[in-house]
Amino acid sequence: MKIPGLIILLLIIVGGISAQSLKPENPYPLKAGINQATADSLVGTQYWYLYATPGSNRLTVRYKQATTLYGADLTSTLTITLYDEKRTWRTTKVVTRKPNASEVTFTADKVLKKMKIIIAVTPPNQNLLRMGGAYEIEATGNVEFGNTANSADPIVRTYDSMVNAYGATRFLANGSVVASDGSTGTWKAFDPENRIYIVEIGKFRWSVQYAPGYGLVKPSAPDMIVFQELRR
User: Fold this and answer.
1) DSSP string across the chain
2) Which residue has the higher pLDDT, 158 or 72?
3) Low-confidence winner among 23-32, 79-88, 136-145, 166-175 (lowest mean pLDDT)
4) pTM for the predicted model, two decimal places
5) What is the pLDDT, as a whole number, of residue 232?
6) Which of 7, 55, 145, 216 could form a disulfide with 208 if both were Cys (CB 3.0 to 4.6 A apart)?
7) Average pLDDT of 129-145?
């Protein structure tokens, strides 16, 4: 399918469990290789970006098996939408968990100039039943990726405490933790590649893993949320 307009553009996506953005105005950069993530109907659409450069490009999205967070069946879908930064065009494809429809590819053979591509991954429109699942995005060819090194650590955001009565709890970039009830603490990365952290607040200490859209969960039990990520 050709994209109308000045350029014949690609459809590209990524995986590699990064800190997906829930804000269309501030998408998260894809990285080279496979980017892994999890979509959830109770969280909303996730946004990524990359740059298509002159030449040929290919973006592949794979809908993997649902995790224990979902219980999704073969009827569950993810809608993948690509559009340029100026929103002069858009294109959409759908993946399901069915074996013959679990992967889609977007290609562009004649990109004429560098442009920023936004990738939106949308789970089913379902607010009562949690639906969605794990997916992968991989971009190849003439593409460039944003600088994740300049992006904030994924743990840096605000959460709702699910274990103690801390209330809204902010994890700051300087490694400190501040809760609305006055409690303070610290966080530090234990395994940055797998987004595992050590969090200490008062006499309590947790080993947690950042799960985009959910928050900080127990690494051995990802359905047990310790700090629930607040939507922005």
Assistant:
1) -PPPSSS-------BSS---BS-TTSPEEP-SSEEEEEEETTTB-EEEEEEEEEEEEEEEEEE----TTT---TT-EEEEEEEETT-S-EEEEEEESSGGGSEEEEEEEEE-S-EEEEEEEE--S-SSS--EEEEEEEEEEEEE---GGGSPPTT-SEEEESSSTT-EEEE-TTSEEEETTS-EEEEEEEEGGGTEEEEEETTEEEEEEEETTTEEEETTEEEEEEEEEPP-
2) 158
3) 23-32
4) 0.68
5) 56
6) 216
7) 89
